[in-house]
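FAQ: What does the model actually see?

It sees only this:
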Amino acid sequence: MSQLRLYNTNGGVTEVTPRLAEAEADVQRLVEANMEALLGVRFLASEYSTGPVHAGRIDSLGIDANGAPVVVEYKRGTDPGVINQGLFYLSWLVDHRGEFEHLVRDRLGATAAAQVLWSGPRLICVAGDYTRYDLHAVREHRRSIDLVRYRYFGTDLIGLETLTAATGRPAPGRREQHTTQAVRGARERIAELAAAADEVLLGLGDGITKVQRKKYCAYQRLRNFASICPPQRAKVHVYLSLDPTEVDLVPDFTRDVTGLGHHGTGDLEVRLRTEKDLERAQDLFRASYATA
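And it is asked to produce this:
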């Protein structure tokens, strides 16, 4: 955000000066009213009380597309205590899983409550700016933390910039045992293709978080931009957060799965069978990464 300059080109070129909010509550209200669009998180509660013993209030509670609980903390400007405060509340949340699941059940139903991903709770901080010590602390921490910087432009524009993200790495899964060399060879080739797709997605840029769920692996840049399902016998399914109506669909390579049940997140399905498929999918990968 500090490197981005915005200009109004209507009747000339005039720079739109960035500014902070008048009050922290202004940012909170805007984000809570549009949390899924801005952060990729479904809003659950505002100013959530942690009870008389803990004696605190969580600015916002939500749940992301992978089912991970999310604590959102806001600061108008730069506050060196925002990360520690958020971690304090995140720790409370992990210790009160039943209470959070009850909240999810009330807001989103029993199915969502049963699929809460407690292995990856997240903290999102939204503030005017951060210190270099904040950025370093996030990279060293074992928790999933996103630092998001905001700026208002004029009266009706807001910009969000993800400065850094950190997450623990999932443990590798067990390898399947195979009975014949032919089957082993075919599955190894598909497994290598899935690993290559994983490497491409993680290499698209900084601040990418990999989230392992039982039936898919999500790639997140504040919000999901891609997910990979466990490789099938002959292909790998990748789902991207792109509008299929804006993509030239290719039979047996890309498919519109809007409204169709599938594992993972995203409305554009990409089928990978060969390294050539992976190569021609990379423009789509980059486009989806850019949207996040």
